[in-house]
Every structure is written in C-alpha cells, then in structure tokens.
Amino acid sequence: MRLINLILLATVLVMLQGCVGVASNVVDRRSQGTLVEDETIETKSMAGIKEKYKDSAQITITSYNRFVLITGEVPSEDFKTGIERIVYSVLSVKQIANEIHVGGMPNPSVHREDSSISRDIRSSLSRNKSIRSGTIKVTTEKGVVYLLGLVTHADANTASELASTANGVQKVVRVFEYID
To answer: What is the pTM of this model?
Structure first.
C-alpha cells in the first residue's frame, strides 16, 4: 500500500512539474491591471449592448491593451453607431476599431467556421517557437481574421503569415501595437 502511495505521489509531482513548464511558456505583455481592464471593457460593453439591443445584434467585443475591436453584424447603420457609443462610454477604452457589418444576421454555420479558423490559428501560433504564447489574440468574423497584441514587427509578420495559410481565411487584419 505504501508503495502505491509513493508511486501516486511521484506521478502527481511529475504532472505538476509539466503544468508549471506549460504555464511558464505563456507570456502576456500586458500588466495584471491592464488584463483586468480588458476583461472589464469586454464585459461592460457586452452588457450595455445586450441591454439596449437585446438579440438584434450579433456582436463580439475584443479588448487588448484597452484597444477595442468590435466585430459582428447589425441590421442598420444606427445600430453600428450606437454600439460604438456604448463601447466608448466604458472607462479605460483607449481606441476602437469598429468592424461591424451592416446587413442580415449570419447563420450559425458561419459562426462555427469562424470559431474553427480562430482555433486553428491559435494552435499554429502556440506551436511556433518564435512567438511567445499569449501575446496575440485571434478573432475571426466571416473569414476575416483579426490579430491583436503587443508584438515585435517580426512577431507580427510571422503571425500574419501563419494566419493567412489557415483554411477558410479570406483576409488577415493586423490590429497590433508594436514594441520595437
């Protein structure tokens, strides 16, 4: 029985060591305060949009270093402008890229394809040795991939190249802040 406990303990320690190694590879160049601000911006923006527009708009809010990317579909230009105002009203928003499309609501299969594209790109980025994991956020809307992050120009070029080769990508849009 004691031997089994020692083996279990050794196994757990080895697994924990692997977890620490994986976690240490993930680096975010934003401060803890900025991480919290970005989450708050996303949450408050979406709450304000849902309160005013209910289910009339399919919107995604992505904040990185207080820079906000708004993507999705709305039925009119008034909705697009109103959503941008809601996002600008949230404290700490530094800048906005409003990439909302005016038109009909997308069907669920488009959303699934976009999610798959983003997942594939994140996977490619995580396997790439030259880009530090956690430095780039990926959002996809109707096959258009948006890349956000605090990066070097070399990281931006590598990430853009990787993203452009993923299946289903129509276009890659860089929304980076450069640190070099």
So the answer is: 0.79
Q: Which domains does the chain have, with CATH numbers?
A: 32-102 (1.10.287.4300), 108-178 (3.30.1340.30)
Predicted confidence pLDDT, tens digits, the chain (180 residues): 554 543 444 444 444 444 433 443 467 889 999 999 999 999 999 999 999 998 888 899 999 999 999 999 999 999 999 999 999 999 999 999 999 999 876 677 888 999 999 999 999 999 999 888 788 999 999 999 999 999 999 999 999 999 999 999 999 999 999 999
Beta strands in 26-164 (DSSP E): 58-64, 67-74, 95-102, 136-141, 144-151
Sequence-separated (6 or more) residues with CB below 8 Å from residue 71: 59, 60, 62, 99, 100, 139, 141, 146
Among 153, 144, 142, 134, smallest CA distance to 173 is for 144
CA gap 75, 56 in Å, rounded: 7
The tokens describing 38, both together, are 């970005």
Looking up tokens 């990508």 gives 169
Pairing outcome for strands 136-141 and 144-151: antiparallel
Strand (E) or helix (H) holding 173: strand 171-178
